[in-house]
Amino acid sequence: MLYLIGLGLGDPTDVTVKGLEIIKKCEHVYLEAYTSILSAGPEELSKFYGKELVVADREMVEQGADDILEKAKVTDVAFLVVGDPFGATTHTDLVLRASSLNIPFQVVHNASILNAVGACGLQLYSFGETVSIPYWTETWEPDSFFDKICENKKRGLHTLCLLDIKVKEPNLESMMRGKVKYDPPRFMTVAQAADQLVKIIDRKPDNDTLLRTDTVVGVARIGSPTQKIVSCTLENLVEMDLGPPLHSLVICGKMHPLELDFLKSFAS
Amino acid sequence: MLYLIGLGLGDPTDVTVKGLEIIKKCEHVYLEAYTSILSAGPEELSKFYGKELVVADREMVEQGADDILEKAKVTDVAFLVVGDPFGATTHTDLVLRASSLNIPFQVVHNASILNAVGACGLQLYSFGETVSIPYWTETWEPDSFFDKICENKKRGLHTLCLLDIKVKEPNLESMMRGKVKYDPPRFMTVAQAADQLVKIIDRKPDNDTLLRTDTVVGVARIGSPTQKIVSCTLENLVEMDLGPPLHSLVICGKMHPLELDFLKSFAS
């Protein structure tokens, strides 16, 4: 049996009682560690569960899925995912492969940023399409997310922007020298995301949908004791420091009086 | 201290470890019981927590909030919500009132249908605005959700439709006789929702966005052992019986090959 278990927002105790019971009985426990991060490290989790964990990077999950599935044919295997198991395409793919091999699977859901972002007081029903904001490089500055934000905003909808995560990225320089070395992990901050958005706005003189002075919300470490939420203008967010990862950004659409009241308590 | 604790999708064991620890230490525990339902009854929950529960209906939460907040000023009070605490406006309002009275509060997030709907294989990032489909009455047949679904569909986005719940609704006939009696609880099925949508389509000859033959997904009791997911045309869903509540409906937008593959496993 293959169990996909959501770990929720970051603390070991964010796992559900059901999830914890299953983890304890599984023979193999994998921890997916590249689409998000936990504030707790694998050692802390392992201790909390009383189980050894295999930390699975992208390569292991995408190329080593057969091995995980082979084990699930004969014994109980847990695959742990930060947030909810269906937050990333890779996990959907794993379920699909299990299903085509007739391996029974069960999903244990949990909170993810997609619903926990409600903590900022904006109504979840009034969010439009979610976008991802990637890190820009020297030669590649994609901005397709900008149009999606504007489409949402024109309809009065808020936009949740998921910010880029770079974990175990091969270092290009050492690759060219034939060595495999990894860059240190990077997590985009709301300030970096706001900075890219402001740059796009400055390049589009005809845009009158998303402005530098529009209200946005920066959220950091949602659900943790150090959670931070800040509401300000997009251009002011560029200067804000919300501390350690994970960060997410919300571009506000049309706001209900109750939403405005709530946001006021986070005004900066 | 006021704790708002999400209970997740329906089973007592869907509570998080953190949530359970807090419930056990609270002096007063309220269970919100009108924006959603648990498959488990309050008695089963109370036994699982080892705590007495006060079942709070809409009236109690909206009119009796002061009493809950007074208690939270001097002791630990838990307010339990099916799904995630920020799934309904009432709970946002409760947090806002606590905040204005300087009562400290903490939120324990959990899965809600808004992310657990990913179990049908449609990517959560490709959902547009969420809509609510209300029960029609003899004299009132609102259809504003139809335009929202079409707006999403035009942009290639899926729509999650939350279906109406009627819990503790005063019976009109007895009200006119001066008595307070309540109708039995009702939960809209995907078949009823599909039926209303088909009727709207038949009334709008100019609509070419949402058709009777479009692919939709009906989901029931997501996250429970009896979970059921069915993918078929909108008109065929009218005849489908997915069993007991809760049901939700998804209107598909443009589908990625991986999404199509996944949906095939639920084809009916």
Architecture overview:
The structure is a homodimer of 268-residue chains. Chain A has 268 residues and is of the alpha/beta class. The first copy, chain A, has two domains: 2-111, Cobalt-precorrin-4 Transmethylase, domain 1 (3-Layer(aba) Sandwich), CATH 3.40.1010; 114-264, Tetrapyrrole methylase, C-terminal domain (Methyltransferase, Cobalt-precorrin-4 Transmethylase, Domain 2, 2-Layer Sandwich), CATH 3.30.950.10. Chain A contains eleven helices and twelve strands. Chain A has helices at residues 17-25, 42-49, 58-63, 65-74, 89-100, 113-116, 144-154, 172-176, 190-203, 234-237, 257-264; strands at residues 2-6, 28-32, 54-56, 77-81, 105-108, 131-133, 159-163, 165-166, 186-187, 215-220, 228-233, 247-251. In chain A, the strands form three sheets. In chain A, strands 3-2-4-1-5 form a five-stranded parallel β-sheet, with helices on both faces. Chain A has a five-stranded mixed β-sheet with strand order 6-7-12-10-11. In chain A, strand 6, helix 7 and strand 7 (159-163) form a beta-alpha-beta unit. Chain A starts with a strand and ends with a helix. The mean pLDDT of chain A is 92.
